[in-house]
Specification:
The chain is α/β, with parallel strands linked by helices and 242 residues long. The chain contains eight helices and eight strands. It has helices spanning 13-26, 48-68, 83-89, 97-108, 122-131, 154-171, 187-194, 201-214; strands spanning 2-7, 31-36, 72-75, 94-96, 112-116, 138-143, 175-178, 198-200. It is globular. The protein binds [(4R)-2,5-dioxoimidazolidin-4-yl]acetic acid (5HY). Residues 10, 44-46, 77-79, 116-118, 121, 148, 180-182 line the site of [(4R)-2,5-dioxoimidazolidin-4-yl]acetic acid.
Length: 242
Amino acid sequence: MTHIKVINPNTALAMTDAIGRCARAVASPSTTVTTVSPSMGPESIESHYDEALAVPGVLAEVAAGEREGVDAYVIACFGDPGLDAARELATGPVLGIAEAAMHAATMLGRGFSVVTTLSRTVGRAWDLAHRYGFATACRGVHASDIPVLDLERPSARAAVIRLCAEAVERDGSDALVLGCAGMADFCAEVSRATSVPVIDGVSAATRFAESLVALGLRTSARGEYAPPRPKRYSGLLRDFTY
Ligand code: 5HY
């Protein structure tokens, strides 16, 4: 059995449940998927401040996963918060949904569009496209300006689907990346509205994580992702002493 821990870095439990359903829907029968929200953190992540304050919760869940014998992790937030730090703690692979979705998109088309939530998160999406080497393949990042926790509203869903179709036409792209874990279950409807491959990072990251484990591959313990050097952390972070 492979055990994948999917971490929703925000504390919105309804969203965590929806993310869990999407991950389990694509996972192999021989894979156990546990989906969690940390006990600390922002109810949604829509700014650099939110993202920074989501990281300790992500790292606490990875540290707990190492004690639980987890084989791989998925960070289910499109900013991939704490991805590098999590890789320093984890033995198994750690995948961010933005990274996984962008990789998948470039295997399916020459160029992709991203549809995300608030316009203030567009810069972060471009940062990640550059970081992951997809600055050219990413043809556009489009904000729906719908707050993360409003995505479950039917009107919001319809607006996102419309924007996805417009984005693909406007950018002339061949694939579409859903820029929020809260859009994970929009895939089928967006596919019908766009007729291009639509990638949800939660599903892509879950299957990629499974594949890396099946290949016997783990995060490198040498160099940048080597375990952090032991030291004291103080104040609210004293429990993070490594
Ligand atoms: C996400 N925020 O996937 C990101 C989306 C965003 O709480 N889950 C969040 O807007 O960056």
